[in-house]
Design a protein that fits this description.
It is a single chain. The protein contains six helices and six strands; from the N terminus they run αβααβαββαβαβ. The chain has 181 residues and is α+β, with helices and mostly antiparallel strands. Strands 1-2-6-5 form a four-stranded antiparallel sheet, with helices on both faces.
Length: 181
């Protein structure tokens, strides 16, 4: 008899969740999505990066330390980001510039995220994250989309992308992401 075997399959299911992100629809069929499974040996380094970022950002960013605790307590975590390879060429203005060429000509701002980027790339990222969280719920895996994990992953070099979100995953009797303080 194997007691509580559900935690043994979490890494395999996390890969299936990333599969949902990968196959999510992309604007104009261009896939600039970057994904990663946070390995157990990387959890502490990423959580520590979140705490350092909280200290650097100062007041109002203590939630990064709370989220670092959530990451440490999660059974697994995934990263989903976008590394924009250009613009859609629609000159839609959603990025804040009149033309795609004007946006692409701007110097990129380096902070937790790197931009500006084409709004459609951000939409692709949102669709990929939505597909991943939907698949996690299909598997009855508790999860939460976290700016904090993604920001720390990007600034500390865990994932080479312009914008990243982290999704910790948990299979316990109570959702550890529900009533956080």
């Amino acid at each position: 008899m194997i007691l509580n075997p559900e935690s043994e399959v979490l890494e395999t299911l996390a890969k299936s969740i990333l599969l949902a992100a990968r196959t999510a629809p992309k604007a104009k069929g261009v896939d600039d999505i970057v994904t990663a499974l946070v390995e157990k040996e990387d959890v502490e380094g990423l959580a520590s990066a979140m705490e350092r970022l909280a200290d650097e950002k100062g007041e109002g960013f203590t939630f990064l330390k709370r989220d670092a605790g959530n990451l440490r307590n999660a059974g697994a975590a995934i990263l989903i980001g976008v590394k924009a390879s250009g613009a859609a060429g629609l000159n839609c203005g959603a990025c804040g510039f009149k033309t795609c060429a004007e946006m692409l000509d701007q110097q990129k701002v380096e902070a937790e995220f790197k931009g500006p980027n084409c709004m459609l790339k951000y939409a692709d990222l949102g669709i990929a994250v939505g597909a991943a969280t939907s698949k996690a719920k299909d598997f009855c895996i508790d999860n939460r989309v976290m700016y904090s994990i993604g920001a720390a992953a990007r600034v500390s070099g865990f994932l080479d992308a312009d914008v990243v979100f982290g999704i910790p995953l948990s299979v316990t009797g109570k959702n550890i992401f529900f009533d956080r303080k």
